[in-house]
Write a structure and sequence with these properties.
single chain; alpha+beta; PH-domain like; five-stranded antiparallel beta sheet; three-stranded antiparallel beta sheet; 3 helices; 37% helix; DUF2244_TM; transmembrane; membrane
């Protein structure tokens, strides 16, 4: 799954709350990222295979002026594919980080091209809501409890959001 929980080592509990020895270490940390169906290694292989397959028809026209007529269009096609896939990778560089302390919850989203958004609230008031049909995607997950309600994991698949829901609720319940 394109998310992972990091559970910080627990110190002795103080006054019934889930606290840590240093007082500032988070209890839980959740990292979410979009699934990449084509890894960088596969990207290089795809571009190489495309160049090879586009070069095969050129073997028949080696030494003729037709080669110079076809070559710019084939180079333009490979360049277009390269640029489009690179743009897709840049737009997909998203990381959401949910951090849970005993006294606050923060959600930081590191988006493409350096965009950053942040949200925080008191964990006692935070609620996880699953919007079955009302959101932009099926089974839309939101966190509410501060000045506004924020989405979490919109880039996850429907099944992954459903699997994340009980885990989020459990972590919030433990962290309170």
């Amino acid at each position: 799954m394109p998310y992972e929980w990091v559970i910080m080592p627990k110190a002795p509990e103080r006054s019934g709350a889930f606290c840590h020895a240093d007082g500032d270490a988070p209890a839980y940390r959740l990292h979410l990222w979009p699934y990449r169906s084509l890894p960088r290694r596969g990207f290089a292989g795809f571009i190489g295979a495309t160049c090879l397959l586009l070069a095969l028809p050129l073997v028949g026209v080696l030494g003729s002026p037709v080669l110079w007529g076809l070559l710019p269009f084939l180079a333009l096609a490979v360049t277009g594919i390269w640029l489009a896939l690179n743009r897709s990778y840049a737009d997909g560089e998203i990381l959401e980080e949910l951090t849970l302390w005993s006294d606050r919850v923060t959600l930081d989203r590191h988006g493409p091209r350096g965009r950053r958004q942040s949200w925080q609230a008191n964990p006692h008031w935070v609620r996880v809501t699953l919007h079955g049909k009302g959101g932009p995607v099926p089974n839309y997950l939101t966190l509410g409890g501060g000045p506004r309600e924020v989405e979490i994991g919109a880039f996850l698949s429907e099944e992954e959001r459903l699997a994340l829901l009980p885990e989020l609720r459990q972590a919030l319940a433990r962290g309170r």
